[in-house]
Write a structure and sequence with these properties.
The complex is a heterodimer of chains A (332) and B (314). Chain A is mainly alpha-helical. Chain A has twelve helices and no strands. Chain A folds into two domains: 86 residues; 234 residues, no CATH class. The chains are: A mainly alpha (332), B alpha+beta (314). Chains A and B meet through helix 1, helix 2, helix 3, helix 4 and helix 8 of A and strand 2, helix 3, helix 5, helix 6 and helix 8 of B.
């Protein structure tokens, strides 16, 4: 009777039990993660995978049953991605990110960071000195956007009142700072993403943000509130501005890699840079969350200039140590 | 491959219509094969990956955007419902947390799902797609971050320029920006790997990875001695068709209606000159002929002859 059966059918009948076993294991892994697999499954997996792959290449040359071939193609693809896929959990990935990947990526990007800082603080300085010479520049920079009345026309008392809180309306300020976080984090991601266009829009974004802050700084400086305003700005600003500068650096890494791929192909160069830059951009989001917490709670609760300066300096030192402190190479 | 329009006198079976159809089919196969990438596994076996088309990508994206909107609107509605019971201060704080939540839904929805084992968002999963590293290695978390952070300029930027509108100079600026950012949006259409800018930066692509079910083998249906003697096809009859027709016949047997089976059976009988015997059902005839055709074609394939279709005269 077996002479009546097709060779390709007998081939399939002998092996389909193992294919289905692999299918069950993969389905379980895809639905519940690696932890759902028993030791037995894990031991069987490599053998079943190799068998399915060899079945596929044999089936391609002897069988014309397109369902079998399609099934094996999809089974092998799924198995391949599982067997050679990452096995780490989200928690482990976060730990490696915080411990190693993030500081390493920032440390490896000193020059883009300096370039980014140059654009940002260049815009800041430009706006600051222009405004100090002639306050009309303020209106040129801001147009009709009044920054909550923090304009050259405001009185010293009003400006002072925006720096310190009297304890009322805390909730409102929290909402405002989370709005600012959204805004800043979106700008940071934009600065990263726009790097793709050779970094030019990133540079513009940095200068623009520098000009906005620099001109506002000039208003307070002009009214003799420079010292107080610095405390108000820097309690969270050290973290926030650092994050923006790093986001710009991430953009420049990509822009540089796309514009000047060097010995690599443009694609390979963009890819290598993208991995590094994405780590930095992710870190920026983390920094901006911390900045928003400092802004939303710290700034509203702390009204002493000294403490504000202390926190600003403290965060600055901590970030510097975290990113740039030389550390021993950890063996993987 | 080029004998499709043969003179009618030599090849009575080939009509102009059939030749046109065949050429269209081959063009379609050609187009499909452009989306296939070979991946050589470390075991040395080749796996064929099929890239997702721009249309499938857009479909998956629309599903994901719809899900994001549902999440955002549902939580906002829930929040307004709860807010009535809160003091203004804590209501503001609740709103602040919602804003942060909104940011994460907007930017981390894709990352959350693509970092997982299936490397696909719900939208991609629904269409049988997944993200994979272009070099065949593992998909790193950094790649997932990179490809999704870039999404902001691909989708967000054209959208913002489109909303800017305005008249006079600002209108022209907005139009210019829209065209410029539209390049990013339409990027996947203009490269052979269907990569968007994010894929390019991250070193990834999106492939089709549908789950296929293993169905029973059509030739496995038990046949008695009586049936196999009834359907004794000659070699000439089994040579009437090629691999393409075999696959079409497989599809007909697996998933078509009774009516279509009847029509197909009638056409095959006419082509191979088979007279319908008493008590012979269309299904039994088709299954028997499928078996005979596949046996013949597989035999020839083992000898290195792939008869692509009925026009392939070997």
């Amino acid at each position: 009777m077996s002479g009546d059966l097709l060779k390709s059918y007998r081939f399939r009948e002998e092996r389909q039990g193992d294919w289905q076993k692999l299918d069950v294991i993969l389905t379980r892994a895809e639905n519940g993660g690696v932890k759902r697999l028993s030791d037995e499954d894990m031991l069987a997996l490599p053998r079943l995978y190799r068998q399915a792959v060899s079945s596929l290449s044999v089936a391609r040359s002897i069988s014309l049953d397109q369902n079998v071939i399609a099934y094996l193609e999809s089974l092998c693809t799924r198995a391949y991605f599982f067997v050679y896929g990452a096995r780490t959990t989200i928690g482990e990935r976060m730990m490696t990110f915080l411990r190693r990947d993030w500081p390493a990526a920032v440390r490896g990007a000193v020059w883009p960071t300096l370039l980014s800082a140059l654009f940002f603080f260049g815009g800041w300085g430009l706006a600051f000195f222009l405004c100090l010479q002639d306050m009309d520049w303020y209106w040129t920079f801001h147009g009709q956007n009044f920054m909550e009345g923090r304009t050259p026309d405001a009185t010293v008392e009003y400006l002072r009142s925006t720096i310190y809180t009297d304890g009322h309306g805390e909730g409102q300020l929290t909402a405002f700072s989370s709005f600012l976080f959204n805004n800043n984090a979106q700008i940071a991601l934009f600065a990263f993403a726009l790097g793709f266009a050779f970094g030019i829009p990133t540079a513009w974004l940095l200068v623009y943000n520098g000009v906005t802050i620099g001109s506002m700084y000039a208003v307070f400086w002009d009214k003799g509130l420079g010292y107080e305003f610095t405390g108000w700005l820097m309690i969270h600003g050290v973290t926030e501005l650092f994050a923006i500068v790093l986001a710009g650096a991430a953009g420049f890494i990509i822009g540089g890699a796309v514009a000047f791929p060097g010995a690599q192909t443009r694609l390979a160069s963009a890819r290598a840079a993208g991995q590094k830059a994405a780590t930095i951009a992710m870190g920026c989001v983390v920094m901006l969350i911390i900045a928003a917490l400092l802004e939303g709670f710290g700034r509203q609760l702390i009204n002493s200039d000294m403490v504000r300066y202390g926190i600003a300096g403290g965060t600055g030192v901590l970030w510097m140590l975290y990113f740039y402190m030389p550390r021993r190479e950890r063996r993987a | 491959m080029t004998e499709s329009v043969a003179p009618r006198t030599q090849r009575p079976g080939v009509s102009l219509e059939a030749a046109t159809q065949r050429r269209a089919r081959m063009a379609e196969e050609m187009r499909q094969s452009k989306l296939i990438r070979r991946l050589i596994t470390p075991e040395g076996a080749a796996i064929r990956l099929k890239l997702a088309t721009a249309g499938e990508r857009a479909g998956a994206f629309l599903i994901d955007v719809a899900i994001q909107w549902v999440i955002v609107i549902a939580t906002l509605l829930g929040l307004t419902f709860v807010i009535g019971a809160l003091t203004p201060g804590s209501a503001n704080i609740a709103f602040a947390f919602w804003l942060v939540f909104f940011f994460f839904v907007r930017n981390f929805y894709y990352i959350f799902f693509e970092i997982g084992q299936r490397a696909a968002t719900p939208g991609k999963r629904a269409l049988g797609l997944r993200v994979a590293a272009r070099d065949g290695g593992r998909l790193t978390a950094n790649s997932v971050l990179a490809r999704n952070f870039i999404r902001e300029i691909e989708v967000g930027l054209p959208f913002q320029f489109a909303l800017m509108g305005g008249d006079g100079a600002s209108g022209w600026m907005a139009l210019l920006g829209l065209v410029w950012s539209g390049v990013f949006l339409l990027f996947p259409i203009f490269n052979k790997d269907k990569m968007r800018v994010g894929d390019l930066i991250a070193g990834t692509w999106v492939i089709r990875s549908p789950k296929t079910k293993l169905m029973h083998d059509i030739t496995s249906v038990p046949k008695g001695a009586e049936a196999s003697s009834r359907f004794a096809f000659t070699t000439a009859q089994a040579d009437a068709y090629g691999i393409h027709e075999l696959h079409v016949l497989e599809d007909v047997l697996r998933q078509s209606t009774q009516e279509i089976k009847q029509q197909v059976a009638a056409r095959i009988r006419a082509k191979i000159g088979w007279t319908k015997q008493a008590g012979e059902t269309d299904l039994a005839f088709l299954e028997a002929y499928y078996g005979a055709l596949r046996r013949r074609l597989e035999q020839r394939m083992l000898l290195g002859e792939r008869k692509a279709d009925k026009f392939d005269v070997r």
